[in-house]
Amino acid sequence: MAEDGERHEYRMEELAGKAGITVRTLRFYRERKLIPPPRREGRIAWYDDTHLARLRTISALLERGHTLSGIAELAEAFDQGRDVGDLLGLGDPTEEVPVRLSPEELADHFGDQSTPENLAAALDLGYLATDGGEIVHISRRLLDVSAALVREGVPLADVLAVGRRVREHTDALATLFTDLILTQPGRTPEDLHRLRPLAKSVTEAELSLALDRRLRKSTNK
């Protein structure tokens, strides 16, 4: 095992002890591909802190009522998710604050809505990405709104489906504003960044007015 402050590696028996499970259970999880393969050094299998975190996640999800088959599907979707660097774009400007979550913390946000299907949909939409042993949500604001809607009784699958449609419309709005600014003589991307708050204000105001119109229609029915 490595010195303190460095990456730790464990033999099978040591890893099982730290995770609070038996060696037999660890072998079973490995056979079910619930954990990544260990690093091999000859005939010795070395596990690290990523494996330990995954085992603790499995235990936490089991305590929350998830089945092993469901956890296996979650693990597969998690392992196939996009890397956070691909999702956020290293060095790209953003006003959103990413949120790092363990799988059990994600389950705490969405309860029984944290299904493999919803996780796969969120990964495909780009709300979620992976970074080592963690899940990263692209935006604290989007995470909070999604969780609030689920608490209001809206199925997470519907939230994600609407999120995809909102993404299409906001991409179109961003294109409109970008073209408006950059087609003017002498304008640069720096001007676009500086005028970004104006685009947000217009979008928020128009959405507010549109909601007013929808509410009036609903009230007058």
UniProtKB/TrEMBL annotation:
Please indicate if the UniProt record lists DNA-binding as a keyword: yes
Q: Which domain of life is it from?
A: Bacteria
UniProt-listed InterPro entries: DNA-bd_dom_put_sf, MerR-type_HTH_dom, MerR_fam
Limits of the HTH merR-type domain: 9-77
Q: Name one Pfam family in it.
A: MerR_1
Entry keywords, A to Z: DNA-binding
A GO term, aspect molecular function = DNA-binding transcription factor activity
Q: What is this protein called?
A: MerR family transcriptional regulator
